[in-house]
Amino acid sequence: MSWLYLIVAGVLEIIWAYTMKQSYGFTRLAPSVITLVAMVASFWLLSLAMRSIPLGTAYVIWTGIGAVGAFVVGITLLGEPVNTLRMLAAVLIVSGLVLMKISSV
C-alpha cells in the first residue's frame, strides 16, 4: 500500500505544480485552491508512504515523479520546448527512479 500512496503523492505533485502555474502567483482562486489541496494531500500521502519506505527512496521517487510529470505536462499542455538535452535529462531521472526502486527491495 505504501508504494500506491507514494505514486498517488507523486501524481498530486504534478497536479499542484501545474495548477500553481495556472494560478498566476495565486491571483486566480480556483487554481490556487486546487494547488493548496493537492499540496496538502501529496505531503500527507508521502508521509504515509514513509512509514515503511526509507526516507531517501520515498523522497527521490516522489520528487522524480513530480519532476518528470511536470516536464511532460509542460511539453504537452503548455507548449514548452523539447530538445535532446531536456529529453536526456528526463531519461536520466527515470533511470534513477528505477534504480532507486530496485535498490530498496
From TrEMBL:
<protein>
    <recommendedName>
        <fullName>Guanidinium exporter</fullName>
    </recommendedName>
</protein>
<keyword id="KW-0813">Transport</keyword>
<feature type="transmembrane region" description="Helical">
    <location>
        <begin position="58"/>
        <end position="78"/>
    </location>
</feature>
<feature type="transmembrane region" description="Helical">
    <location>
        <begin position="84"/>
        <end position="102"/>
    </location>
</feature>
<dbReference type="InterPro" id="IPR045324">
    <property type="entry name" value="Small_multidrug_res"/>
</dbReference>
<keyword id="KW-1133">Transmembrane helix</keyword>
<keyword id="KW-1003">Cell membrane</keyword>
<dbReference type="InterPro" id="IPR037185">
    <property type="entry name" value="EmrE-like"/>
</dbReference>
<dbReference type="InterPro" id="IPR000390">
    <property type="entry name" value="Small_drug/metabolite_transptr"/>
</dbReference>
<keyword id="KW-0812">Transmembrane</keyword>
<dbReference type="Pfam" id="PF00893">
    <property type="entry name" value="Multi_Drug_Res"/>
</dbReference>
<keyword id="KW-0472">Membrane</keyword>
<comment type="similarity">
    <text>Belongs to the drug/metabolite transporter (DMT) superfamily. Small multidrug resistance (SMR) (TC 2.A.7.1) family. Gdx/SugE subfamily.</text>
</comment>
<feature type="transmembrane region" description="Helical">
    <location>
        <begin position="27"/>
        <end position="46"/>
    </location>
</feature>
